[in-house]
Design a protein that fits this description.
Blueprint lengths: L32 H4 L3 H5 L1 H4 L5 E3 L5 H14 L4 E3 L9 H8 L1 H9 L2 E2 L37 E6 L6 H16 L3 E5 L4 H14 L10 H12 E4 L11 H15 L3 E5 L14 H19 L2 E6 L23 H5 L2 E7 L8 E9 L9 E8 L4 E2 L1
Parallel strand pairs: 1-2, 4-8, 4-9, 5-6, 5-7, 7-8
Antiparallel strand pairs: 2-3, 9-10, 10-11, 11-12
Helix pairs in contact: 5-6, 7-8, 8-9, 10-11
Length: 384
């Protein structure tokens, strides 16, 4: 096989049974292209890599090798990747060569199977997936009810002015600070500079005031450059900035920046291109299906912030569900995780905020239905 390549620096470090890196300093992640250059080679060579029609992934059959394979497939594109299966007792092609000879190596590569994309598969057609490793949101008391993972579709809703955007911005800041997850933020409602970036920076610093000290701005700028990229409509561009446009840009964010999270805030500000024969409900169902497919193909946690209907304002925070989001029940049906953010009491006065977890697909490993109370600091815009 003339076209065989090895990735620089090999597989990422191993994890223990709880998803923690072994013999790696706390706060360091194995997939952080802006920091350790581990996957930068894909972006650097993308013009050549994108022309290849079939790629056989032959990483080690241990836990680090499986996670390396998953990340390569995520960035190179699942539809053109195939995987190999080794004989019992062999963890790589070198051990196959030593134990069984060159003919068996050729047979294994030649019989590589495509990664499943859609359809029905026999058990032996399915590659071994990396372990599901749920992560904390950064609020310890919320861990009992909500843990995050990828790929997944998470929907956040709540009444206007009661904190759903602020809470979600602090959430992605926590994911970057604690887990090193890079987030692509698609913000169609608020100016990215300075409002979105300041909110993320404040959450990262964890300060008691928005009056940053000397050197804080440089720290925030470095944090934003390393952990975030931003998707926004081009000024004076005639192209429709719809879901297809958004996912096209999100794919670039995965390949070039290693994005692990896509935050869409808010849903209603996207230009929704609905077919003439398509009802609103049918369109939302199709659009969410395309977004969820993107998350699966690129192993991304997608977070959508969506407004509830005006009719939901007559309900108490405990009664509001994802079914109350405007236009479609698909937000409830397709979400893996669902959260309602609402003030407890008078929103204009009270700072106590309920985080109501309304849907958890994989219970109890990623949480359960329930709620906690956080306190909103109006001066910093942070939830404590």
């Amino acid at each position: 096989y003339a076209y065989a390549v090895s990735v620089p620096d090999g597989a990422p470090p191993a994890r223990d049974g709880f998803g923690n890196l072994i013999d790696v300093p706390e706060g360091v992640d194995d997939i952080d292209p802006a920091n350790d250059e581990k996957y930068r080679y894909i972006a650097n060579n993308w013009d050549r890599l994108k022309k290849i029609k079939r790629i056989v992934i032959a990483t080690d059959a241990d836990e680090p090798g499986r996670r390396l394979a998953a990340e390569l497939v995520r960035r190179l594109g699942r539809v053109r990747c195939s995987f190999v299966s080794y004989p019992e007792g062999c963890k790589d092609l070198n051990e196959v060569l030593i134990g069984y000879g060159a003919a068996e190596v050729n047979r294994i590569i030649g019989s590589a199977l495509p990664y499943p994309v859609s359809g029905v598969y026999a058990y032996h057609d399915l590659p071994q997936e990396p372990e599901l490793c749920p992560k904390t949101t950064g609020w310890d008391k919320l861990d009992e009810y909500l843990m995050l993972y990828h790929p997944a579709l998470m929907v956040v809703t709540g009444f206007a002015g009661q904190g759903k955007t602020s809470w979600t911005q602090q959430l992605v800041s926590n994911l970057a600070r604690i887990h090193g997850w890079t987030t692509a933020i698609a913000s169609f409602e608020m100016r990215i500079k300075p409002y979105v970036t300041n909110a993320i920076g404040t959450a990262m610093l964890g300060i008691a005031s928005k009056r940053w000290g000397d050197g804080d701005q440089a720290t925030v700028d470095e944090f934003l450059d390393r952990n975030f990229c931003f998707i926004a409509p081009e000024p004076d561009c005639e192209r429709v900035h719809d879901v297809s446009w958004l996912l096209e840009k999100a794919e670039v964010a995965v390949i070039r920046h290693g994005a692990r999270v896509l935050l869409i805030d808010p849903w209603n500000e996207i230009e929704h291109s609905r077919d003439a024969r398509e009802s609103t409900t049918e369109y939302v169902n199709r659009a969410l299906r395309e977004i969820k497919d993107f998350g699966r193909r690129f192993d991304v946690l997608v977070i959508i912030v969506a407004h509830p209907t005006k009719g939901a304002t007559s309900k108490s925070p405990e009664e509001v569900t994802l079914y109350d989001i405007a236009d479609s029940a698909a937000f409830q049906n397709k979400a893996d995780l669902g959260v309602v953010v609402a003030r407890l009491g008078d929103p204009a006065v009270d700072i106590e905020t309920g985080i109501f977890v309304k849907k958890v697909r994989y219970q109890p490993s990623t949480g359960k239905i329930g709620s906690i109370e956080l306190v909103f600091d109006r001066e910093t815009g942070m939830f404590m």
